[in-house]
What we know:
- 2 copies of one chain form a homodimer.
- By secondary structure, the first copy, chain A, is of the alpha+beta class.
- Chain A folds into 3 domains: 12-285, 2-Layer Sandwich (BirA Bifunctional Protein, domain 2), CATH 3.30.930.10; 302-403, Anticodon-binding domain (Rossmann fold), CATH 3.40.50; 419-489, 2-Layer Sandwich (Translation Initiation Factor IF3), CATH 3.30.110.
- The first copy, chain A, is built from 14 helices and 27 strands.
- In chain A, strands 3-9-10-16-13-12-11-24-27-23-22 form an 11-stranded mixed β-sheet, with helices on both faces. A 5-stranded mixed β-sheet of chain A has the order 18-17-19-20-21, sandwiched between helices. A 3-stranded antiparallel β-sheet of chain A has the order 4-8-5.
- In chain A, helix 2 crosses helix 6 (180-200).
- The longest helix of chain A has 26 residues, at 392-417.
- The interface between A and B is large, with 64 and 64 residues.
- Strand 5 (88-94) of chain A pairs antiparallel with strand 5 of chain B.
Amino acid sequence: MGNNLTSRQQDYAQWYNDLILKGGLAEHSDVRGCMVIKPYGYGLWENMRDVLDKMFKDTGHQNAYFPLFIPKSYLSKEASHVEGFAKECAVVTHYRLKNDPNGGGVIVDPEAKLEEELIVRPTSETIIWSTYKGWVQSYRDLPILVNQWANVVRWEMRTRLFLRTAEFLWQEGHTAHATKEEAVAETVQMLDVYAKFVEEYMALPVIKGVKTASERFAGAEDTYCIEAMMQDGKALQAGTSHFLGQNFAKAFDVKFADKDNKMEYVWATSWGMSTRLIGALVMAHSDDEGLVLPPRIAPLQVVIVPIYGKDAEARQKIDDKAAEIIKELKLKGISVKYDNDDTTRPGWKFAEYELRGVPVRVALGARDLENNVAEVARRDEKTKESVSLDGIANHIENLLEDIQSNLYHRAVTFRTNNIRKADNWDEFVKILDENSGFILAHWDGTAETEEKIKELAKATIRCIPLDNPMEDGACILTGKPSTQRVLFARAY
Amino acid sequence: MGNNLTSRQQDYAQWYNDLILKGGLAEHSDVRGCMVIKPYGYGLWENMRDVLDKMFKDTGHQNAYFPLFIPKSYLSKEASHVEGFAKECAVVTHYRLKNDPNGGGVIVDPEAKLEEELIVRPTSETIIWSTYKGWVQSYRDLPILVNQWANVVRWEMRTRLFLRTAEFLWQEGHTAHATKEEAVAETVQMLDVYAKFVEEYMALPVIKGVKTASERFAGAEDTYCIEAMMQDGKALQAGTSHFLGQNFAKAFDVKFADKDNKMEYVWATSWGMSTRLIGALVMAHSDDEGLVLPPRIAPLQVVIVPIYGKDAEARQKIDDKAAEIIKELKLKGISVKYDNDDTTRPGWKFAEYELRGVPVRVALGARDLENNVAEVARRDEKTKESVSLDGIANHIENLLEDIQSNLYHRAVTFRTNNIRKADNWDEFVKILDENSGFILAHWDGTAETEEKIKELAKATIRCIPLDNPMEDGACILTGKPSTQRVLFARAY
Lengths: 492, 492
């Protein structure tokens, strides 16, 4: 058929872009750096959001909503936070437009200048902690377990759909605790929630770890992360969970009276996941024919395409049988579409649903009906089989689970094949240039060496994996002693 | 107990504010005009959103997401739209901050001025229609049935929690159609969806109608609305659905080839509902003891409070019985909380849940258990009854439906008692001043008279009710002939 897609080998970045656009997930808007998330892409996000939201609620969190705007001075209250976030951001300076006296449409009214500029939130720690100050008096007000689903803006000069856009959608959890232990436990719990979500629903294996000091969230004492491998071997950070210590409590003076009536600063965490994950999903599973979406979060799980002949009676029989199957699938909670649009041909439809990554396609023709079968195609392996119409809904239900699991195991195998050890600088660079993928290597533990490696090889330390085995070795760059390997990769 | 609430009679506006704050729904933020929606208030919004979202999907709509920012020039493209929306809004002029060379924290980087200012969306017609231009070529691309859940900003000088805030949450549907008839039918369909939602879930009767030309949405050919009556007799517009004609299609040059391959402008609708509705909910049903929330959307439907004595064994029995009831209620999909917090007394809890408007409260003590009963209190009527523990979950399930229906009928009766006819100016003013409420009166149909009435009596034409009976009469202000009464009220 030919969807005119660029292949992965030709140009990986272009392939990605083609898939997002032609697969109907998103497009660039007229506003620089901002995207339009189209219904199909938003349907995917809704499914991801609903699963995550339930996981948050099951772990005791509630949602709330905080202002879009942050007073400029708030960003400066936490010293390292301002360094990380107060730079590239959208600044609101005025609150009124007026008609141009010279007839040029509307202009900004110079009289309506804000006393203090407002920043469109790049993340909400500051406005939330200034709010929590009013919520916390005693240990009985803790913990606060709150999450927010919101849009945020970080001005980006070079943008890519989903992966890096000026505005994006995300969730940000912000919790407040009476003890350090409890806050650390929360940080780790939410990392586990993310890992479970990404592995079980997005079918993407992740490595859990801790960031080095230089890669930490601005204002955090520890940043935990999950790292996933894309098909080009690069890493994509799929979620982060931060232990913020008492930094924001101190910056916004949030204290509580403990059981002995002693005033203490509150301990904090924050954790977030964004529409960026959709980019990871696309890059991890899709192929040269288009998107490949994991059944558990696919906006559409099954499409049924009738293969009509000219006989009206036979067409009716196909429609009736399809209606029967659809009813059974819906009872099982499976989303299904019957595409009986007469103006496009089955072959065109096949290519279209392949492009859109619909996990299962069923084709139903008159001869199939005579033989009491249907042709069932799975998107992941692009194989077809003839399936008996008796119990076909059960078959499809199992097939969807099989596809989900196959995608995950395929990704695990790919990752296993692309994690390598490097024991010296030449090996390290050779692997990066020839194989890409993740590299486990020794590092002397200093920020200087980390920075130097980044400069020389364009690779960063993605994380220090949790439960990392201790092993004596020598830093690949400086040869200085090291006690464990860390995870390097080039990254999105 | 005393929640220190202002009573309705003392000061209606203060009563409202007390309820929002002390009921835990929302609070003012540090950012002028922006509110924080607290978990309890957001839980209410989530329930409302989920019901509405399902109704939108059941009528064939999908969700999508469009940029937060709108280029300033876009607002000017539709002539009447710019008059209505391009005035009080948040204007982004810069995209970077930098460290103050004089050491005063961060300042706006003058080098990072945008070529064209961006407006934080007050509504999204312009950015969406500039997008639809790329989506529509032929009649086969129509209709587009898209909705967006988003935050919007309209700079307001005087704000009130939920009712009028600079930033608020809403949904905005934007549809595109091949014919005028289809677009009008969509406009009316969505008005009906809103009316059904507000009446059946929020327990609030509404009057459906059409706005006069002066009260129309900026850019619409017709604005349909639903109007609800608050307890002070004032009107609150609870949702609007606009037939936009071809105005935005012309402004953004969105044409399609019809079946005869003739190019035509697309027909449009838009429709919206916002967090403002939470304000309506509070003002319609609540009382001097606190919030009264309709069971179908209440964040928490039932609370069970144990009445503990000192006997540990008896306490255990209460806990066990409560666990049983909770299990049964949850199986029925009823949300329930067991408040066995030992540090507050039952009386304090009763007042607290009354304040928060939890529809049903169950108290369970040792003596109750001996008698195989529990004390069940309903929030709407503040009555209590002793209910057998056998089948108590069924009893509560029915009670919740009864409360829902009682709230609706109470509101209908209140409204019926407060709609009056006025046949001349003196009657009109007297009713407004002495009784408040809605007034059906004749109007000569001119914008001048409408404006004059607004000036003199502070009352506006809320709508021309749908299916309004024709009746000859004379305008209450000018005495000129009129063919029907229209609905007047003072309004929020």
